[in-house]
Amino acid sequence: MKMYGIPNCDTxxxxxxxxxxxxxAFEFNDFKKQGLDxxxxxxxxxxxxxxxxxxxxxxxxxxxxxxxxxxLMSKKDLMPLTxxxxxxxxxxxxxxTALLVGFKAEEYxxxxx
Length: 113
Known about the structure:
Elements: E1 2-5, H1 10-21, E2 27-30, H2 38-47, H3 50-53, H4 59-63, H5 66-73, H6 79-83, E3 92-94, E4 99-101, H7 105-108
Parallel strand pairs: 1-2
Antiparallel strand pairs: 1-3, 3-4
């Protein structure tokens, strides 16, 4: 199981605490430090729509021009997600069978190791 996010994000910390409290092992990828490649993003978009993946409440989103926002949401240009990974809603959890975006305790309770 692999979790993507940034360590100082409150939602990421809640998700990590939940997994640790339930003895669910996971690998953490700090996508600010380790980066995020387009291949990973494209894989995520196979199971989640872009509207779920993009955090429109982020400061990064607010910094984009209207054209950049339009191109991103229409999937014409996904590069801002690799260049500004904080555009992605956090955390992203790859379980092997599912891709969970954001933290909802009820979704995490259904995880199988």
